[in-house]
Specification:
The protein has 2 domains: about 5-110, no CATH class; about 115-260, Trna Endonuclease, Chain: A, domain 1 (3-Layer(aba) Sandwich), CATH 3.40.1350. Helices cover about 40% and strands about 15% of the residues. It has 9 helices and 8 strands. Strands 1-2-3-5-6-8 form a 6-stranded mixed β-sheet. Strands 4-7 form a two-stranded antiparallel ribbon. The longest helix is centred in the middle third of the chain and has 38 residues, at about 95-130.
């Protein structure tokens, strides 16, 4: 190992704790992680070492609660034990750690949600095209202003599908925009569909959510000068139905069981 690398490694830790009691294996593992995250190559960065290390842990750590941080960590006192201990060792306050977790994972979650959503829409369009005697139009591919993603056109039947996709198991969370909600209110053909995807982004299950139940869950504007623009809803199993029952009339004989329910 280069001597200057060892010096840099030590400089990241000496302001917080001595590490002379760790084993050579632990030392080398920590050194490799610091090198892989790029922390060794910016020793003069203006940001304190503890903050840089904590942020790198957030970006590279494989921790189950990260993706649900907006649900489980709503204030600094709700920090999980592992995050609180890491912050304390690095000389960071709970409040700083809380803000950093949401700053990093709020951005990561938004990008991942967009990727999963696009994959879910494309997979559902393909499935509907192969399973129905109808014209399938992916309207969200050229505009997000319709308030739904997919239009199913048949001679005497139509459906406007707002598709929400998730890779989470045993949970059906989604974000509903104000535009989608308003279209739901006046468009009788509107239907919210939640897609559960595999890790490879293939459709594992399909569920329909009743609009009347959604109506009971959305927030209400309280004054003239503020209005909600999006809200997060999580659907309990008893408030969803398997497949897309409203498409039964246009399903072909070889239609996917996922659509039949």
């Amino acid at each position: 190992m280069p001597a200057n690398g060892r010096v840099r490694c030590r400089s990241l830790f000496t302001t917080h704790t001595e590490y002379s009691d760790i084993s050579p294996t632990q030392y080398d593992a920590a050194y490799r992680w610091l090198e892989e995250t790029g922390l060794l190559y910016d020793p003069d960065d203006a940001q304190p070492a503890g903050e840089r290390i904590f942020r790198s842990l957030l970006l590279t750590g494989d921790v189950s609660w990260f993706s649900d941080v907006d649900i489980h960590v709503r204030e600094p006192t709700e920090l999980p034990i592992d995050a609180g201990r890491a912050a304390a060792v690095l000389g960071l306050s709970e409040n700083w750690a809380y803000q950093e977790i949401h700053a990093v994972w709020g951005k990561v979650d938004a990008a991942e949600r967009s990727r999963i959503g696009a994959a879910g829409e494309a997979a559902l369009v393909a499935l509907l095209s192969a399973s129905t005697n109808a014209s399938i139009e992916h309207v969200a591919a050229h505009s997000d202003g319709y308030g739904y993603d997919i239009a199913v056109h048949a001679e005497r039947h139509s459906l406007h599908i707002e598709a929400k996709a998730t890779t989470r198991r045993n949970r059906l969370p989604f974000f509903l925009s104000r535009r989608e909600y308003e279209v739901m209110q006046y468009d009788p053909s509107w239907q919210l569909i939640v897609l559960q995807l595999t890790d490879q982004l293939a459709i594992r299950a399909i569920a329909s959510v009743d609009s009347s139940w959604i109506e009971t869950q959305v927030p209400h504007d309280r004054g003239l000068y503020a209005r909600w623009e999006a809200c997060r809803i999580e659907v309990p199993p008893e408030h969803s139905s398997s497949g897309i029952p409203r498409l039964a009339a246009v399903l072909g004989q070889e239609a996917s069981p996922l659509l039949r329910g």
